[in-house]
Design goal:
2 domains, alpha/beta, six-stranded parallel β-sheet, 13 strands, binds NADP nicotinamide-adenine-dinucleotide phosphate, 12 helices, Dihydrodipicolinate Reductase, domain 2
Length: 342
């Protein structure tokens, strides 16, 4: 059994880690922390877990006490993990859901996260946890920087085109997210009257997931396509889900069938990547670790559609998938969960 600690268990990412890990046959949740909710029962904060767990949230622990665990999940706001990771006992494996350790350039980190990075030495130990692309490195890793939710969707949609050299020139990524992407704490721009029935764009040319996508694409290709990425995010009035329409110019004309062949070449054996007929739908991936991809092609333009659940494949689910690989556990363990219809 893998002995697990979750730091930040009272948030939305932590909620999903609890939901998945409580029923994972090879893990035991030994510790779960909260900040304002410290001292409460887990099911007082996450009523969906009533009758399923007697765990209680504890205050943030002394880092030395974390030596008792095999794997520590960090589901904390940006900036917290970089304070904690350098002080963790050697031997503890770490999976960080935040953006703190995804970028290997401190200047780019500062530009997009608005703060200095003070743990770049520790950053060098991290493997970027895009499971389907970095699987062999993840198996050997001690530290995982779990990708962002938009980034996971966009990278998986683009990877076959960039890695094969088929993408050329500008890529336009038109991405949408539900409100749970902003976390559990209400804020003026995320609470219900603002978000319900609304649809707006935000963080134009400034979203923090853009540089991690560019970094990943640069690592799998010598093309400059990654540097002409236009990445625009929108808020849509749903709770869970990321949907993207990604416009790619290809080196030569492709048919829809040829795009299908390319997708099968890269993802034909991937359990968590499914191919939709036409457009995928956030409803079919909700609460699951699946990523649904659809596509259409005309001349040298391909549109790839992608849907995933921001809290599962975009956060906790991919984190558990990575934990499985790190501990030699079958990759799908604890993650074979059907969605619902409707
Ligand atoms: N939401 C998503 O879709 C998503 C997807 C991918 C990655 N992520 C990343 O995952 C991380 C967690 O996101 P989230 O949506 O779960 O956020 P969240 O709902 O706001 O939860 C944050 C958690 O951190 C705790 N916390 C806050 N301030 C703290 C402090 N000063 N010291 C110790 N603990 C503190 C909170 O405890 P209390 O509630 O008890 O105060 C809570 O458990 C973020 O870095 C986020 O960017 C989120």
């Amino acid at each position: 059994m893998v002995k697990v600690a979750i730091l930040g268990g009272s948030g939305y990412g932590g909620s999903e880690l609890l939901r998945l890990l409580l029923f994972h046959p090879q893990t035991e949740i030994k510790f779960v922390s909260a900040n304002e909710h410290a001292g409460k029962r887990v099911d007082a904060v996450h009523p969906n877990l009533a009758h399923l767990s007697d765990l209680k949230f504890e205050a943030m622990p002394d880092t030395s006490s974390l030596a008792a665990f095999d794997c520590v999940f960090l589901a904390l706001p940006h900036g917290q993990a970089m304070e904690i990771v350098p002080r963790l006992p050697a031997g503890v494996r770490v999976i960080d859901l935040s953006g703190d350790f995804r970028l290997n350039d401190p200047d780019i980190f500062k530009e997009f996260y608005g703060r200095e990075h003070n743990a770049m030495e520790a950053q060098r130990r991290f493997v970027y946890g895009l499971t389907e692309v970095n699987r062999s490195q993840i198996k050997e890793a001690t530290h995982i920087a779990n990708p962002g939710c938009f980034a996971t969707a966009l990278e998986l949609a683009l990877y076959p085109f960039v890695a094969s050299g088929m993408a050329e020139g500008k890529i336009i990524a038109d991405m949408k997210t539900g409100s749970s992407g902003s976390g559990a704490k209400a804020a003026a721009n995320t609470h219900h009257p603002k978000r319900a029935n609304s649809f707006y764009a935000y963080k134009t040319f400034a979203h923090q997931h853009q540089p991690e996508v560019e970094q990943l694409l640069a690592s799998v290709s010598k093309l400059t396509a990654a540097h002409s990425l236009v990445f625009q995010v929108h808020s849509i009035p749903v709770v869970r889900g990321i949907f993207g329409s990604i416009y790619i110019t290809t080196r030569e004309a492709m048919t829809t069938q040829q795009v299908g062949a390319l997708m099968r070449e890269f993802y034909g054996n991937e359990f968590f990547i499914r191919f939709a007929h036409g457009s995928p739908d956030i409803n079919w991936v909700k609460n699951t670790n699946f990523v649904d991809l659809g596509w259409a092609a005309q001349g040298d333009t391909v549109i790839v559609f992608v849907a995933l659940d921001n809290l599962v494949k975009g956060a906790a689910g991919q984190a558990v998938q990575n934990m499985n690989l790190m501990f030699g556990i079958e990759e799908k363990t604890g993650l074979v969960i059907p969605g619902t219809n409707p």
